[in-house]
Specification:
The structure holds 2 protein chains of 2 kinds. By secondary structure, chain A is of the alpha/beta class. Helix content of chain A is 31%, strand content 25%. Chain A has 11 helices and 12 strands. In chain A, a hairpin with a 4-residue loop joins β1 and β2. In chain A, α3 packs across α4, α3 packs parallel to α5 and α5 runs parallel beside α6. The longest helix of chain A is centred in the middle third of the chain and has 18 residues. By secondary structure, chain B is an alpha/beta fold. Chain B has 12 helices and 12 strands. In chain B, the strands form 2 sheets. Chain B has an 8-stranded mixed sheet, sandwiched between helices. A 4-stranded antiparallel sheet of chain B has the order 2-1-4-5, with helices on one face. The two termini of chain B are 34 Å apart. The chains are: A alpha/beta, B alpha/beta. At the A-B interface, α6, α7, α8, α9 and α10 of A face α7, α8, α9 and α10 of B.
C-alpha cells in the first residue's frame, strides 16, 4: 500500500513551533511561547516511537506538527522522504490519507450527531477511496478489524462505551490505509481493564497492517510497554532518546530518572524497597523559561555550565542520545 | 487493631428513571488508627459513593443510604441527620476529605485564606487573626513557598499541584482522625503525583491520622497502603494485606487487574498484556449472580446458579468473595 518506499516514515530536523503571545487591543506580539524548540528525531517504518513528558512539554504539538495541523515556525518535517513542512493544504491533501490520528478523549473527538458509519466512513469519501456501492462493505470491514459489531453502524457515539468509542476512533484512523498513525494519549481516558484491550488491539493492527505509530502519552509504563524507542520531552525539548528497554535499564538524563522513579510499581515488596527520587519544585513556565538547561533548577547535578548553556542532544552510545552536560 | 472507623453492610442506592442503581451494595470494612488503607476499583464501582456515604454527602434524592452502620468513635454516623450539627462537626473536623479535581473543589471567587480559615474558625473556634497564622503555618507545612503572601491569592493563581497542596492543608487544618483522599492525584502529572503522595504520607505520620486512599492505580496502593479493599460493581470482592493481594490474589478480577497493567522493564516482547474481556456491568437492575461472571475466565456452573457469594476467609486478614478456589484451578 505504501507507494513511497523509505526506511524513515517521519524525520524531524530542528523543528521549532512558536506560538505568539499577543497583548492589547491591537494584539501586537510581545513574545513567543516556544512549544517545540529544536526537536529532531526519526521514526522508522513499522516501529512504535513513544513520546513521553508531562503536560505542557510539547508532545501533542509535536504530533500535530507531524500531521501538519500546524505550520511549524522553522525546521523540516520529512514524511516518507518528502519535506512537508511548508506544503499548502492542497499539496497536503493527497498525503493526508497516509497519516491517521487517534485522540485522547473518546467523547470529544467523535461528532455526537454523526452515526458510527459516517464517522468511520467520511475519510473514505473525502479521499475517494471507495465506490458508493462498496461503502458499507468497507465500513463493515473496518468495524470487524477493530472488534466492533457492524450491526452497530447506525448508532451515534453516546450509545457506545468509552472503549468502544476509542475503537471507532481507531477504525476511522485506519480507513484510508495509512502508514503512520499518531496516537495522542489514546488510553488515558479509559478504565484500567479497558486500556489493555486497546493496547493489544493497537499491537495486533500494527502486525497485521504494518503500521508505524507515534505513541504520545504521559504514562511511562504504558509507553515503555508498547514502544520500540522512546523520546523524553521536557519544556519543548527532547532530553533523551533510547530504545525502550535501554531507557528503563540505563536512564541517563536526571529527568528521565525522576520520571521512572515517580511511577509506582504494582508490587508492594519492590515498592517498599525502592528509593524514590522526588523532584523538587514545579515545571517552569514556558513564558519565562530558565537560562541554560531548562531542567537545571530542579536538577541535583547542575553546575555552572548547566546554568549558562543549553546542552545539545548528543549520542552517548549507539542509539542512545541524551541532552545533558553531566552524563 | 482497634477499628477507628467501621463500615458495616453499607448500602447506598440511587433511584433513576431507568431503574434502581445499587451503587454500594453491602460493603463492610474498617480502618485502624494511624493506618493507610487503599480502596481500589474501576470507575463506577462505587468507591467514591461509599466514601461520600461516610460523610453523608450523597445527594438525596436520587441517592439514599438504605442500610448499614458507620461506626466512628462508638457512634453510628448514620443516626445523625445529613444536615445536622453533629455531622457538620464530624465533617472536616474529625473526618476530612481530599477530592480529585483541585480546580472544582476550591471556590474560585474566594481567596485561599478565606477557604482555609473557615474550617478553623468553625471547628476550632479560632479568631480570624490566629486562624490566619495557623493557615500560613499549614501552607508552609505542605510546601507552599512564600506562604504569607500567597495566602491572599485566588485558586486560579496556583498550579494544579499547588492547589492540591492547598487541599491537603485544608484537610489537615483541624487535625482530623481520618483523611479520605478520593483519587487525589489522578488529574496530575506523574512527578507531581509522586511529590504529593510522599507529602501525604509524611503528613499522616506527622498528624497521627489515618488515611483512606481511593484510586484506580494499583501502583499507588502497592506503595502506600497497608491493607487493600478491591471493589467491583458496588461490592468488596477481595480484601487483605497489600502483600497478599499483590502476591497471592484470589479473586479472578484482582488477578485480571494485575495482569492487564504494564510493568516497567517489561516490553511487549517480554510479556503481552492480558486484558479482562468485556465491559464493567451496567449497575441498573443487576441480576443476583456474581457481577463479574460475564467477564470471568474461571467461571463454573455454580456461579450461574448461586447468588453472589459472601466474603470468606482464605488466610490471615485475607478475604475473597468467589465460589471458586483460584489456587486450586491453577
Amino acid at each position: 500500500m505504501n507507494a513511497l518506499p523509505n526506511e524513515m516514515v517521519v524525520e524531524l530536523r530542528n523543528l521549532k513551533m512558536y506560538f505568539p503571545i499577543t497583548k492589547g487591543l491591537l494584539r501586537h506580539k510581545i513574545g513567543d511561547i516556544k512549544a517545540i524548540d529544536d526537536v529532531s528525531f526519526k521514526i522508522k517504518r513499522h516501529e512504535t516511537f513513544g513520546l513521553v513528558g508531562e503536560s505542557g512539554c510539547g508532545k501533542t504539538t509535536t504530533g500535530r506538527c507531524i500531521l501538519r495541523l500546524y505550520r511549524p515556525t522553522s525546521g523540516n518535517i520529512f514524511f516518507q522522504g518528502i519535506d512537508i513542512s511548508s506544503f499548502s493544504e492542497r499539496q497536503l491533501k493527497p498525503l493526508r490519507r497516509h497519516m491517521g490520528a487517534i485522540f485522547q478523549d473518546p467523547y470529544g473527538s467523535l461528532n455526537p450527531r454523526q452515526t458510527a458509519r459516517m464517522i468511520v466512513g467520511t475519510p473514505l469519501l473525502i479521499h475517494r477511496m471507495v465506490r458508493k456501492r462498496n461503502f458499507d462493505e468497507r465500513v463493515a470491514e473496518l468495524f470487524h478489524l477493530v472488534g466492533l459489531d457492524p450491526s452497530m453502524m447506525d448508532r451515534v457515539p453516546h450509545e457506545f462505551s468509552g472503549g468502544q468509542r476509542q475503537r471507532l476512533g481507531i477504525a476511522r484512523a485506519l480507513a484510508c490505509h495509512p502508514s503512520l498513525i499518531v496516537c495522542d494519549e489514546p488510553i488515558s481516558a479509559l478504565d484500567v481493564s479497558i486500556q489493555a484491550q486497546i493496547i493489544n488491539l493497537l499491537e495486533e493492527l500494527q502486525e497485521k497492517l504494518g503500521l508505524t505509530y507515534l505513541f504520545i502519552a504521559h504514562d511511562l509504563s504504558m509507553v515503555q510497554h508498547i514502544s520500540d524507542r522512546i523520546a523524553v520531552m521536557y519544556l519543548g525539548r527532547i532530553v533523551e532518546i533510547a530504545e525502550s528497554l535501554e531507557l528503563y535499564e540505563n536512564p541517563l538524563h536526571p529527568y528521565t530518572k525522576a520520571l521512572l522513579s515517580a511511577i509506582p510499581i504494582p508490587n508492594p515488596k519492590i515498592e517498599k524497597a525502592r528509593k524514590r527520587m522526588v523532584l523538587k519544585g514545579e515545571v517552569p513556565s514556558l513564558l519565562n523559561p530558565p537560562l541554560g538547561c531548562y531542567f537545571h533548577p530542579r536538577c541535583d547535578f547542575a553546575n555552572q555550565d548547566c546554568r549558562n548553556e543549553i546542552p545539545p542532544l548528543r549520542e552517548v552510545h549507539e542509539g542512545h542520545q541524551v541532552a545533558c552536560f553531566r552524563v | 487493631m482497634a477499628a477507628l472507623l467501621e463500615i458495616q453492610n453499607l448500602k447506598t442506592y440511587f433511584q433513576t428513571y431507568q431503574g434502581l442503581v445499587k451503587a454500594v451494595d453491602g460493603i463492610s470494612c474498617f480502618i485502624g488508627e494511624r493506618e493507610i488503607i487503599g480502596l481500589v476499583g474501576e470507575s463506577g464501582c462505587g468507591k467514591s459513593v461509599s466514601m461520600l456515604s461516610i460523610m453523608q454527602l450523597i445527594p438525596s434524592p436520587p441517592g439514599q443510604i438504605v442500610d448499614g452502620k458507620i461506626l466512628f468513635d462508638g457512634q453510628d454516623l448514620l443516626q445523625f441527620k445529613a444536615k445536622g450539627e453533629e455531622m457538620s462537626f464530624i465533617r472536616g473536623g474529625k473526618i476530612a476529605m481530599i477530592f480529585q479535581e483541585p480546580m472544582t473543589s476550591l471556590n474560585p471567587v474566594l481567596t485561599i485564606r478565606r477557604q482555609l480559615t473557615e474550617s478553623l474558625e468553625v471547628h476550632l473556634d479560632m479568631d480570624s487573626f490566629s486562624a490566619r497564622e495557623r493557615a500560613i503555618e499549614l501552607l508552609k507545612l505542605v510546601g507552599i513557598p512564600d506562604a504569607e503572601t500567597r495566602i491572599e491569592d485566588y485558586p486560579h493563581q496556583f498550579s494544579g499541584g499547588m492547589r492540591q497542596r492547598v487541599m491537603i492543608a485544608m484537610a489537615l487544618s483541624c487535625s482530623p482522625k481520618i483523611i479520605i483522599a478520593d483519587e487525589p492525584t489522578t488529574a496530575l502529572d506523574v512527578t507531581t503525583q509522586a511529590q504529593l503522595l510522599e507529602l501525604m504520607k509524611e503528613m499522616v505520620i506527622h498528624f497521627n491520622t489515618s488515611l483512606i486512599i481511593v484510586t484506580h492505580n494499583l501502583g499507588i496502593v502497592a506503595r502506600y497502603a497497608e491493607r487493600i479493599y478491591v471493589m467491583y460493581s458496588g461490592r468488596i470482592i477481595e480484601s487483605g494485606r497489600a502483600e497478599d493481594i499483590f502476591e497471592d490474589p484470589r479473586h479472578p478480577y484482582t488477578i485480571g487487574l494485575l495482569n492487564c497493567v504494564p510493568r516497567l522493564g517489561e516490553t511487549r516482547k517480554r510479556r503481552k498484556l492480558v486484558p479482562i474481556v468485556g465491559l464493567p456491568p451496567n449497575l441498573i437492575n443487576m441480576p443476583p449472580f456474581c457481577a463479574f461472571l460475564p467477564r470471568c475466565a474461571y467461571q463454573i456452573e455454580i456461579c450461574k446458579q448461586e447468588p453472589w457469594p459472601p466474603l470468606r476467609s482464605v488466610g490471615d486478614q485475607h478475604e475473597v468473595s468467589c465460589h471458586i478456589d483460584v489456587q486450586e484451578r491453577q
